[in-house]
Amino acid sequence: MPRPPGGHGPGFEIRRQKIIDTAASLFAQQGYAATSINDLGRAVGLAKGALYYYIGSKENLLIEIQSRVLDPLLARAKEIAALDEPPLLRLRLLSESLLTTIFRRLDHIWVYEHDYRSLSGVELETVLGQRADFELLITGLLTEAVEAGTFRAVEPHLATRQFLNLHNHTYQWVRPDGSWDAAFLSGEYCSTLFRGFAASVAELPDVEALAAEFKRFRPDLPLDPETAWEALPVAG
Questions:
Q1: What does the DSSP 8-state code read for residue 221?
Q2: What percent of the chain stands above pLDDT 90?
Q3: Which among 64, 48, 71 has a CA at the least distance from the CA of 4?
C-alpha cells in the first residue's frame, strides 16, 4: 500500500501514527465523506500542507486505517492457523485475537466496516483480498473440524459467515472499559458456535481448558496481533 513520501526521521512515524489514530476517531464520529482535510488538520494542529506531508492524501489515510487493523490481524491469524494444535483450539485462539483487535481499535474497526467501499482500484482490491484471506483461514479450520468428526457436516462458507457475524458486530456495542473482556467474549462466542456445529456435544473437548493451558505454557505466543511472537530458545 502507498506511503507518503519522505520524512523518515525518528519522530516521523510516531507523529504519523497519531494522525492515523485521530483520523480514525474523526471518521468514526463524523463519517469518512463528511470529514474534511481541514477538520483533521485542526484536530492534529497541522496546516494542510504539513498534513499531506504525513499522509499523502485523504484516500491514503483511509488505507492506513485499514492497514492498522488488517495487517497485524491477518499476520497473527496465519500464525495461529499454522499451529500444531486441534482445529477447535486454533479457532478459539483466532477468535480471541480478532476480539482483542476490536477492543483496542474500536474507531479503526468502525471505519474498516463502514468506509472501506470508499476506496477504489488497486487499494480496494487489496483490502478485499485481505478480508478474503482472513475468511479462508476460518473456513479452513472449520473444514478441519468437520473432517476430524468433531463438527457435523456444516456448510463451510455458511459456518464462516456465522463465525464472522457473531464477532464482527461486537464493535457496535462493546465497551472496552466494561466487565467483559476479549477472552470472556471469545469463550462465550465459541461455546455457542461449537455446540451448534458439534457432531456430538457430549464429545466436545474442553476448549476453554485447552486455551488456558496454551496461554500458560506459551506466553511467547501472545494472541494480541500487535505484539510480536518470540522465538523459543534452542535447548542444549
A1: S
A2: 65
A3: 64
What are residue 151's DSSP bridge partners?
A: 198
Cell reading at 29? 464520529
Q: 228: which DSSP letter?
A: P
What are the φ and ψ backbone dihedral angles of 79, each rounded to 5 degrees?
-65, -40
Contact 37, 85 (CB under 8 A): no
Query: What percent helix, strand, coil does the chain show, rounded to 5?
Result: 70, 0, 30
Three-class secondary structure assignment of 181-207: CHHHHHHHHHHHHHHHHECCHHHCCCH
Higher pLDDT: 77 or 59? It is: 77
Nearest CA to 54 out of 123, 6, 114 is that of: 6
Report the distance separating Cα 167 and Cα 165, nearest Å: 5
Q: Hey, what's the cell of 43?
A: 484536530
- Return the residue matching grid coordinates 461486537: 170
* Degrees, nearest 5: CA angle 15-109-45: 30
Helix and strand counts by DSSP (H, E) for the chain: 10, 0
Neighbours of 184 (CB within 10 A): 12
Closest CA to 68 of 80, 60, 58, 78: 60
Contacts of 119 (CB under 8 A, 6+ apart): 59, 62, 63, 66, 127
Reply yes or no on whether the pLDDT at 132 is more than 90: yes
